[in-house]
Hints:
The complex is a heterodimer. Helix content of chain A is 30%, strand content 34%. Chain A has helices at residues 2-26, 86-89, 117-125, and strands spanning 33-38, 41-47, 55-61, 64-71, 74-80, 100-102, 107-111. A 4-stranded antiparallel sheet of chain A has the order 2-1-7-6. Chain B is mainly α. Chain B has a single domain, classed as Arp2/3 complex 21 kDa subunit ARPC3. Helix content of chain B is 78%, strand content 0%. Chain B has 6 helices and no strands. Chain B has helices spanning 2-25, 41-50, 53-71, 74-94, 103-126, 135-166. In chain B, α1 runs parallel beside α3 (53-71) and α3 packs antiparallel against α4 (74-94). The longest helix of chain B has 32 residues, at 135-166. Chain B is globular and about 55 Å long. Chain A binds chain B through residues 2-3, 6, 10, 13-14, 16-18, 20-21, 24, 37, 39-41, 63, 82-84, 86, 89-91, 97-99, 101, 103-104, 106-108, 110, and chain B through 28, 31-33, 72-73, 75-76, 79, 101-102, 105, 108, 122, 125-128, 130-131, 133-134, 136-137, 139-140, 143-144, 147.
Amino acid sequence: MTNRIWIVVFSVVALLCLGIWLFISNVSSPSKVVGIYKDGSLVEKIDLNSVTDEREITLSGDFGDNVILVSNGRIEMKSADCPDKICVEHGELKSSSSPIVCLPNKVVIKFENSTDGADAKAGAVG
Amino acid sequence: MKTKKLILTAILTAFALVAFVIEGAIPPLTPIYGVKLGLANIFTLFALYALGTRYAAAVMSLRIVLGSIFTGQLVSFIYSLSGGLLSFLLMILLKRFFPLKQLWVLSVLCAVMHNVGQLAAAVFMTQTLAIAYYLPVLILSGIIAGAFTGLCAQLVLMRIAKIQYKN
């Protein structure tokens, strides 16, 4: 009897998580401004729509280099020296809810919320 | 009796290590860090119910340390350990509420706890809260993986109990 209760509880939680996940991974980002973070601090902020020439950004970390490929409207991790390569398999950055993450080198690439204060500051500097 | 338990602990640790290394050799199903079955936990759970808390602690900590050495991934060691410690604390706290027939429930709770702990460590290490977006998918994978490994341990233990009654 208790088994049944637990099955129901876990199924409900699982479905709820699946729903939330599907919902947030399909929300495409309204802004095309991405931030590249290393060790939690911003390295570079790029507006993908204003990129004309393809270029590579290389970041060095504890486990070697991460090479980020930026072109018009798209950003992806081209290669990484870390053992798992999860960030490379992630492919192009599409959704604001699933950032590209390289845990070994502590690199995060994500869309920026264009309405927050940090952007205004970066804009003033740029 | 104590020697018997000691030997069983060693055997279970060896099994857990083999499961861990084999699982690590299989390419990940999803590009999301932390989504995996955790086959090695079958043996930790087995040790918990067949031998006791201290033996389960030995199986798990030895497996984490040796497994990290064998696979040569020190990064995952930190995440492994933080998730492992949290889920183990939960396991010894809650064990008394779950008889053998509900082992799989305990396994699910611990697996979810493990993934949440690992994610918390990742947020802390990268100083990026955005990674917390992975929480729903990690809870989901924890439920599935926990139910699977828990049922494996539970079914084996229930069969063993039956054999012991016959003899």
